[in-house]
Amino acid sequence: MRQSLAPEDLEHMLQHAEPAWQDLRGRSLFITGGTGFFGRWLLEGLAHANDRFSLQAKATVLTRDPVAFALKAPHLASRPDIRLHAGDLRDFVFPEGEFTHIIHAGTTSAYHIAPEEMFDTILSGTRRVLDFAAQCGVRKLLFTSSGAVYGRLPPEITHVSEEYAGAPDCTLPSSAYGEGKRAAELMCVLAASRHGFEAKIARCFAFVGPHLPQDSHFAIGNFMRDVLAGEDIRILGDGRPRRSYLYAADLAVWLWTILCQGQSCRAYNVGSGEDLSILETAQAVHEAAGSTRSIQVAQESVPGQPRSGYVPCVRRAGEELGLHVRVSLCEAIRRTLHWTRHGSAL
């Protein structure tokens, strides 16, 4: 069985999210999306903090398939402080008891499903979680939104801030995810105002780390898949779009901190401000892996065509919450490749 995370990553979360751990002492959490990429890191951090600090915090985790999760992560599923609750995000039965904190990270970003299904899942799932929040006496709720709420950025914006008032183009089916997240943010704000709990919004960008899918629409994950298979790295476009990547251990620290210390009804960009092109990303993975294969770029760039960007300005998170990038991209790639290659037995 693969060891879930490296000790250095567990200690990273323990150290840099320490104020949040004290806020969670003796608390009861309800987490959606707890079995996905975000959720796995959050649960690992909470479990490690419980063991180290004797927090006695408990988490109830919504999942469509508790058995499948127990097989993937038996060291988490078997813990007495983590309880799996079977159900679908859109119509789950409310678990009994009071819950002080909710993390709503459950949605779908899978681009192979129909846009209308994606849009409905985001909105109906958020509505169900907010109905539960109103009933269970929650104090603080974190909604993991997305940088997609800003829509396509004009070329003069290199790092988008939370004050940017742009939005997805509602005439395009491809806007279903971003527009769904925008509407869900407003739903959280309205519910918080009506029911008196704190609602925190994390607009998440791009990430790298163990548990990131390597067969999806995440470019850096796909590049790692290619080099680990001993194949050429394949870039489907021209390699010019700009992206940035935050390591998952930092991601977890940021999410725990925003939940416990962020201002209510306020959005925080979550990601790295260190941008690079898709081609430069592929080159970084290629170098870190020591690959002897090539990088294949499928399309030639068109002269004069502006390149797209998806990079956050993270000044607000730094100034208000003291959140910073602590793991460099090169180190993040190295750790992810090492974990994928050499995960050890529990």
What does this protein look like?
- With 346 residues, this protein is α/β, with parallel strands linked by helices.
- It has a single domain (7-208, 245-272, 313-326), classed as NAD(P)-binding Rossmann-like Domain (Rossmann fold, 3-Layer(aba) Sandwich).
- Helix content is 41%, strand content 16%.
- It has twelve helices and 14 strands.
- It has helices spanning 7-16, 18-23, 37-53, 66-72, 74-77, 115-136, 176-195, 219-228, 248-261, 278-289, 315-321, 329-342; strands at 28-32, 58-63, 82-86, 101-104, 140-146, 198-204, 207-208, 233-235, 242-243, 246-247, 266-270, 276-277, 295-297, 309-310.
- Strands 3-2-1-4-5-6-11 form a seven-stranded parallel beta sheet, with helices on both faces.
- β5, α7 (176-195) and β6 form a beta-alpha-beta unit.
- The radius of gyration is 20 Å and the shape is globular.
- The mean pLDDT is 94.
